[in-house]
Amino acid sequence: MDKPRQLPLDFSHAPGYSRDELVVSPANEEAVALIDRWPDWPAPVMVLSGPTGAGKTHLAEIWRSVSEAMALHPAKLSQAIGLLDSRPVLIDDADGAAIDENGLFHLINHVRANGSYLLMTARRFPLAWGVRLPDLVSRLKAAPTVEIHEPDDALLAGVMTKLFADRQVEVDLPVVQYLVRRIERSLATAIRVVERLDRMALEEHSRITRALAAEAVNAMDEGQGELGF
């Protein structure tokens, strides 16, 4: 007889954003070095670019905590400029919504004039954001971009371990290593696998074992790559 399954409640899992929880590997070490060296930056306006799940928000939150930066939504920049003075500014996921182009242009000018700093994170390089305001395009071209690369084994394993820890789930290292060797090498896939395995373990009243991990990987190989619930 099949084991009874428990329908897990959909609790949110708040990620940890402390510096101690940051996973560092060759894939992201340049970006980490940029955050750690602030305010000794090569320019007042910097961009962190990388794929979904690469840790851009984690790095941005570390910087925001240290710099006491004000976080602004990319579509609502114009009305906030008068509140800033010389306070640093963070725009996380700058290419995730239609950006306030006039507001960003004036914000960059404000940051430069006041000896402050602006950090933007995005999935794409600035010139791929679809910006049309010529003066803003010029400003973005002048902003150095630091790229977070696709994950190596160390980063992928570290991120998966952290994602499980965020859910207060203990997973043995050999299980994580098994997953790293078999899933698509992307952080977005790692996030979906962790979510799926957590749910499977709750449904089956089980630890996350290698056998359960193999079940999830096999489901992906059989055409259920999105791991839909």
Automatic annotation (TrEMBL):
Superkingdom to which the source organism belongs: Bacteria
SUPFAM superfamilies to which the protein is assigned, alphabetical: P-loop containing nucleoside triphosphate hydrolases
Matching InterPro entries: P-loop_NTPase
NCBIfam families named among the record's database cross-references: PRK09087.1
Protein's name according to its UniProt entry: Chromosomal replication initiation ATPase DnaA
Native source organism of the sequence: Aquamicrobium ahrensii
